[in-house]
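Attaching the record inline, Q. Sequence:
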Amino acid sequence: MTCQVSVERAVPGDIPAIAAVFTTSFQESVLHHCGRLPKPRAMQDVFTLVYEAEPQAALVARTEQGQVAGYCFAPTLLPQLWIRAVFGGHIVLWAWRWLTGQYGFGLHPVKIIVMNKLAFLSSSMKPAKSANARILSIAVSESCRGQGVASRLMEAAIRYFQDQKVTRVRLEVRPDNAPAIKVYEKLGFYRDGFTTDSQGQWLIMFKEME
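Structure, as predicted:
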């Protein structure tokens, strides 16, 4: 099936569809962290935070029928993400919804998620690995893969970085994800080390912006 899409800014109403694309695309990772597929509210709350921290950095590939076929979050204000999580009430809301069973998973996944986020922050704060923008998350629905949708999302993200005067972009990708690595290298990203979480290695890639 040919997937005709337009790449545009996401709107709040896209969050459930973005969360669904993420859950389907990274189901193995979601199962690793949660032990089971969580209730949709769990991923929706995470992506609501990411969206609200920098709405202009949220991109979607939208079909002619208006459906979200892919997304990319490309923030340049990552500190705002953590500040908003702590001081914007998100962590308190998440804790309440988790305790009241609205996410559908227990305590063990929380430990894994916290440990992985600490490893992520440690890697991000190393001076040699610094960057002032990230490809935080990108995914394309299965029916639209292999048709250049991811490349178009990345190209739109790079244009946004150019507008924001970004100097260096960072992303992480699993070393065995050859199709994604091929897209990133074609767009000028280069390999520069590894970081690790509870699931294994991530390949770190950078792009120097002109």
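The mean pLDDT is 86. Strands lie at 5-9, 58-63, 68-73, 133-134, 137-140, 168-173, 190-197, 200-208.

More tomorrow.
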